[in-house]
Design goal:
By secondary structure, the chain is α/β, with parallel strands linked by helices. The protein has 2 domains: 6-392, Glycosidases (TIM Barrel, Alpha-Beta Barrel); 398-491, Golgi alpha-mannosidase II (Immunoglobulin-like, Sandwich). The strands form 6 sheets. Strands 1-2-5-11-12-13-14-15 form an 8-stranded parallel barrel, surrounded by 4 helices. Strand 20 and strand 21 form a beta hairpin. It is globular and about 90 Å long.
Amino acid sequence: MGHNKAIFEINTRVFLKRFKIEGREATIADIPESYWSALSQKGIGYIWLMGIWETSDAIIAKCCFESGLIQSYSRALKDWTREDVIGSPYAITRYSVNQNIGSVKDLETLRETLHRNGLQLLLDFIPNHFSAATPYLDSKPEVFLQCSEERFREDPHTIFKHGTETIKYFAHGRDPFFPAWTDTVQVNYCSYEARKFMKERLNEIAGLCDGVRCDMAMLPLNNVFQNTWGGLLTENGFSSPISEFWFDAITEVKNNYPGFLFIAEAYWDLEWKLQQLGFDYTYDKKLYDRLKHDKVTSIMGHLHADMEFQAKTVRFIENHDEERAMHAFGKDKSLVSALLILTIPGITLLHEGQFEGKKIKLPVQLGREPQEFSNQLLYELYGKLLKLCDSEIIHQGEWFLMEPITSWPGNYRFEDILAYEWRFHEHHLLIVINYASQISQCRLQLNLEGYDENFALKDLWSGIEYRRSSEDARREGLYIELAPWHFHMFLY
């Protein structure tokens, strides 16, 4: 099963600031088609416009100036002002296009432009919560997790009071391992009305795009929701539903929109469960952590996972939740890590600014980014890498993980080498990576049945062609020596 075309994430609200339009702010309608065409030519298949939905200014002053957030703003943007704080794009009032970004018509036109350039549009779906300022609190209170006044007095951080004449108490959205997000209100997944409402929203979104990235997709799972809110649910007479929301919702949407893509931001070893409930792809945060911190043996162990699972994972080395790859990995390690995630089964998530080597992670509440030096060399290397990885053999071929062996007794540097190959018809693409800060050597035993006495390996990255003895490579293994954080892409 081949590697799919990559996803490219854009922080829409910040990105639009780059376009200078006289007399007004830029909208998605002002992004030139040439920008999308250039991304398509790099091998990108999906554009994720992160943060296009309507938010409320009403809760910014109350919720977006906590000490931890202020520190994150100062780290990212030294000269930030209160006007730069525009609130979280994950605390939405409703699934309407933010008027500062454009209109529904602009979004429909943009989607047509993307399709014309061989690209598909992904948008956010935030299942767990809405903004604490959503008008649905008044028009659809049954959708949200309501509480008693006593609960509010016991835990005013998690519970909040809403209304003036008629007072109601609601829970803020939360992850069970962290304090509640005070700018949000929790959707009640034990409520039939809430599930129906959220399925309706998903069907509406599916009419506007080609897929959704579902924020914190584990939280609506029955057991997770029950473990997070059990006491409140029991008090209000709610019990856990028999079916899973995701199975019902994904089945319904795909019946209405065949081919619609569901991507889960997922953690806590729940990725496989979410795939079984219908998600096309789930985040692979474990690979990210292993690439960042671990040795090759750990990465190899991860890549031994069942192919059915791996083919449905999202591989990344940065996104809006993680540190910039240039900061976390450095140039050499980030480039070979990018090669890896672009050439193993699954789908790659790339982040706007990654190619240029941006180093500063921007808090999602900020609407302005700092000026950063663009690393032209890295940009050119990414361009070359993406072009090489956008190939038929990778997109349609069959993938095989290889086991490097020592090149002589006592040499353990082979343990720093990752090797695998794609096979498509008679073509083989062998990728060998020295994922270490020292020179490493190994041998690789190749299947050379039917090859001539001598065979050629062309390194697509360097352009150098090597001729080797088929018998020697078959008997002893192909000898490899690589400098730190270097790699080969051998076509043979």
